[in-house]
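Thread: Newbie trying to understand structure tokens

Hi all, I'm a second-year student working on a class project, and my supervisor (Dr. K.) asked me to get a predicted structure for one chain before our next meeting. I've only ever worked with sequences, so writing a 3D structure as a token string is new to me. If someone could post the tokens and maybe explain what I'm looking at, I'd be very grateful. Here's the chain:
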Amino acid sequence: METWFYEVVSIDGDYANLRRTDIESNDLKLVARALLPAEILEGSKLKYELMQYELIG
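---
Reply by user tm_fold:
Sure, no problem. This is what the structure looks like when written as tokens:
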């Protein structure tokens, strides 16, 4: 089982741009907001594990 950590860089309507924080990367991942916790804001920290995003900060 792998775990990845992300930061919400920006929110644009029904989508959010996420950047991995557990590795050195400038790539952004576009994710539908329906897959993310409803209370996210720009700058929120997320953990992705078992095909689910969890708000951690």
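A couple of things are worth pointing out once you decode it. Residues 4 and 24 are 12 Å apart (CA to CA). The longest strand covers residues 3-12. Feel free to ask follow-ups in this thread.
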